[in-house]
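Blinded run. Sample ID left blank on purpose so nobody reads anything into the name before looking at the predicted structure. Input follows.
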Amino acid sequence: MIGSFIKRISTITMVLILFSPGVYPLPMSRTCYTVPADVLDLYMGEELIADDKTSRIDVINIDLGLNYYTTLGCRWSYLNSDLAEESGESGDILVELWRYTGRCLNEKLDTGISFAVRIPSGPDPSEDEEWRNLSVGRNEIKIGPVFSFNLTEKEVLSFNLSYVLSEGEGDDFYGALRGDLQEPDTYKSFFGLNPFYGDSFFSGDRISDDYFTSALSIIEKRLYPAVFYGEMVYTSGNFREEREASSADSGGPLTLLSTGIKYFVRDSAFLHLNVNVNPFYSQGERKWGAGAGLNIFF
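Blinded prediction complete.
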């Protein structure tokens, strides 16, 4: 048992510290962070989000290494719309499947792809604006590539661009999918995924609520065990015209700038602090945020 435990800690150290300098997880942008096989990464944290009031979110995130290239993650949050209130609401559940696809360009560039599904267990802001900027409350599917470029042994630059399929107000998000193998339409529509087939999952009216997200981040490790980072995250508005916007929309594009520090207490645990701000804040949008948490590896 002791030998197995020592081997587990050694594996975590090797993958996180020695061989993969750019795999540290960040709060808002995806890096090529891949949990080692049979290792569990548990994150517990608190987030503050301010618009016209300051709200608190309790976060639990679990990432499990399925093998050395694949990670399955799940994030759950509990929403408190006002710091003075003792009651709140369960937030959405996010499930992500991450696949590391390798290293190229003379061992400088790490690549991977992220596929995430939002389960709308949280409140819908279109029904109650108290939860604006805290919850989505609708089905979403997010997919996109991730690139991490090792500038030096101590600095890593990461970029990701994702497409988000988002459920429209009153839509049956998965209703266009077809799985009846006895129906000809199932094959003509390619199980409902053919964009040129009427009422497919990617037909024009269904993608009107979709949007893009992109993020650029830099990680600095010269002062390890303190690791510093900066992020810039951009979310586009949905594809509907502005006059058709619903009360659930943020009102258009959103840009957030973030900076933070991770401090490795030991190889299997680190503390995390971060702050972020919206430099183009307008009424009703997220103004600033802050977070603190702890990652533990088992």
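Unblinding after everyone has recorded impressions. The domain at 2-171+206-297 is CATH 2.40.160.40 (Porin).
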